[in-house]
């Protein structure tokens, strides 16, 4: 079955979806994106992703392509047209095609480009890695200073993923001024005793939609939450570690820079948080 994608109000086969070479998303990575998970044909935390999209657009003085209700309708239509059960819907908005290349933003006559497509991942919530956990390495964080905006400038995270692959591990944690910022495409956490430690929100990290939900559930489950930076050395001495993202949910981290965390297996609180997150979010899925 060929995939049906969405481009500026139209649903069409992926091979027919064309964007100008002058689109600023292509020339300048002048675009923002969101990834919403789908479980059992339903969207997980769609409202959260819509709210962050609006914030990313505002921070970059970019025009919203359409109201949230239209975005929701398009997500659902793509799920239907592609028979998507488990996976994600990717959405990208760019500043559009001004017809030439120029550093200055174009005027309002240039309309944003809106693209959406599905990625099928059957059994997304039951992947074997959740039982064994990820190994990570640390790498310097050399990204720009507005990581709170979810832009399509993903070259360094891609390079870091390649460094992780070369080291035969699953992901990389970025380190800046001696402290962990986040993972290549996820937020990072450690647990000591009953206390979860994760970096506080700022321009240094993406404000994860999964992070917000998990911290809420953790507090409800009587776990303590401390939002502050932590070092790799502190993480290596922790009882447990994990990451969160919209597509990995809550994923245990069992090794950091070749040092096993705890007994080198996914920890009980991490496992519990993953279960709570999946249960609650499935219930609230739309
Ligand atoms: N940090 C970065 C750098 C990311 O790319 C992502 C994934 N979008 C996250 C954190 C996690 O955010 P979310 O839970 O909203 O997927």
Helix content: 25-40%
| Number of helical stretches of at least 4 residues | 8
Distance between the termini: 25 Å
* Mean of pLDDT: 98
Tell me how many strands there are: 15
Q: Write out the distinct hetero groups bound to the structure.
A: 4'-deoxy-4'-aminopyridoxal-5'-phosphate
Structural class: alpha+beta
Give Rg in angstroms.
19 Å
Model regions low in confidence, pLDDT < 50 over at least 5 residues: none
> What's the number of structural domains?
2
Q: Architecture of the largest domain, according to CATH?
A: Alpha-Beta Barrel
- In CATH terms, the superfamily of the largest domain is D-amino Acid Aminotransferase, subunit A, domain 2
Description of the molecule:
The chain is of the alpha+beta class and 286 residues long. The chain has two domains: 4-124, D-amino Acid Aminotransferase, Chain A, domain 1 (2-Layer Sandwich), CATH 3.30.470.10; 129-284, D-amino Acid Aminotransferase, Chain A, domain 2, CATH 3.20.10. It contains eight helices and 15 strands. Helix 6 crosses helix 8. The structure holds 4'-deoxy-4'-aminopyridoxal-5'-phosphate (PMP). 4'-deoxy-4'-aminopyridoxal-5'-phosphate binds at residues 35, 182, 185-187, 206, 208-211, 244-246.
Question: What's the gist of this structure?
Answer:
The chain is an alpha+beta fold and 286 residues long.
Fold blueprint:
Elements: E1 4-7, E2 10-13, H1 24-28, E3 31-39, E4 42-43, H2 46-59, H3 68-81, E5 87-94, E6 113-120, H4 129-132, E7 134-140, H5 155-166, E8 171-176, E9 179-183, E10 187-192, E11 195-198, H6 209-220, E12 224-227, H7 232-236, E13 240-245, E14 249-256, E15 259-260, H8 268-284
Parallel strand pairs: 7-8, 7-14, 11-12
Antiparallel strand pairs: 1-2, 1-6, 3-4, 3-5, 5-6, 8-9, 10-11, 10-13, 13-14, 14-15
Helix pairs in contact: 6-8
